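About this split. The held-out portion is used to measure sequence recovery: a designer receives only the structure tokens and must propose an amino acid at every position. Recovery is the fraction of positions where the proposal matches the reference. Here is one held-out target exactly as it appears in the evaluation file.
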């Protein structure tokens, strides 16, 4: 059986040209460019809690970095360096090689250098800490929303939750490939996050469900929100094969999407339409920020706007 050091050398040691010292010493060394702030985030994925034990290791390698990239993107920061803490039940080298491949696929795509980590025996879990840079004072927090701002969402919210429902046999689709890809290989909106600096007033990434995460943005900005039911980007879910009612529930409640939810002034609409074209990424205007801390209303044209029960939506996706 290979030693821990052999495994690290073979699978987790790659050049890190933008670090002063990377894998192999007691700590990594790197420096932030002048005028930049260091942005740091960490996220753990635990078998049985965040993924099924039989999830393909290549996908897990990708996703464990992608979920952290999404957090930095949501601050408008550029990703640079990562550390990886791996807890493995056994030194299954085939599994580790596939995991590392997925991890470095994602790292290469977004310019991240792995500079250190820890490898221990235990229940399967992986924790990435990701370091990035943002021009000092320009990070986009959850707290900057203004009354009257438009609310926008990137991409195709709900597809990952639909993928999970497929795996749980709660829905059956003729072709589940797109939903499963969204679940297993989420695309962090790194370019969009950086491009939104100077445009978005407040932003976060949707990991726990659109309504639940919107509630966090509202709380931090001390505002409420009005969602427009007719503006929700339901088409990808309906094309995948679910009816409109279920599509709406999944879109509002489903987690694991890693899309960006942000507020921006009304006069940025043209800029955002141009940005969506440039990035080839849908940006959909789904409502606005209103006075009234924490209140989230859904307007659907016919009936008067009604409050959305955030917790009700939580329970929809995770019945426990
Ligand atoms: P220490 O005992 O000093 O913490 P370790 O034996 O845990 O050192 O790790 C040796 C080196 O390998 C360190 O530089 C550490 O950052 C790196 N490392 C350990 N595990 C990983 C991993 N999964 N990915 C990347 N680097 C790792
Ligand atoms: Mg160690």
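Reference sequence for scoring:
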């Amino acid at each position: 059986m290979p030693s821990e050091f052999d495994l690290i050398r073979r699978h987790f040691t790659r050049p890190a040209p933008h670090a002063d010292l990377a894998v192999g010493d007691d700590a990594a060394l790197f420096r932030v460019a002048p005028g930049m702030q260091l942005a740091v985030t960490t996220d753990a994925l635990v078998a049985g809690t965040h993924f099924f034990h039989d999830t393909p290791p290549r996908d897990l390698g990708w996703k464990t970095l992608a979920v952290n990239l999404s957090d930095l993107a949501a601050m408008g920061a550029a990703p640079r360096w990562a550390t990886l803490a791996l807890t493995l039940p056994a030194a299954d080298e085939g599994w580790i090689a596939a995991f590392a491949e997925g991890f470095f696929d994602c790292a290469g795509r977004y310019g991240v250098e792995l500079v250190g980590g820890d490898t221990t025996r235990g229940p399967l879990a992986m924790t990435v800490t990701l370091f990035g840079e943002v021009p000092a004072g320009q990070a986009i927090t959850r707290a900057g929303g203004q009354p009257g701002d438009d609310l926008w969402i990137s991409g195709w919210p709900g597809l990952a939750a639909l993928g999970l429902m497929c795996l749980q046999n709660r829905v059956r689709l003729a072709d589940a490939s797109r939903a499963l890809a969204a679940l297993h290989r989420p695309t962090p909106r790194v370019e969009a996050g950086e491009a939104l600096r100077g445009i978005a007033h407040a932003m976060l990434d949707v990991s726990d469900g659109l309504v639940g995460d919107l509630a966090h943005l509202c709380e931090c900005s001390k505002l409420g929100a009005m969602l427009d039911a007719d503006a929700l980007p339901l088409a990808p879910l309906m094309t995948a094969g679910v009816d409109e009612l279920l599509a709406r529930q999944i879109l509002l409640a489903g987690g694991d999407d890693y899309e960006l939810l942000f507020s921006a002034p009304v006069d940025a609409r043209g800029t955002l339409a141009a940005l969506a074209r440039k990035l080839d990424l849908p940006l959909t205007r789904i409502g606005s920020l209103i006075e009234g801390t924490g209140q989230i209303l859904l307007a659907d044209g016919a009936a008067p706007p009604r409050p959305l029960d955030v917790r009700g939506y939580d329970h929809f996706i995770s019945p426990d």
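Annotator remark: DSSP finds eleven helices and eleven strands in the chain.
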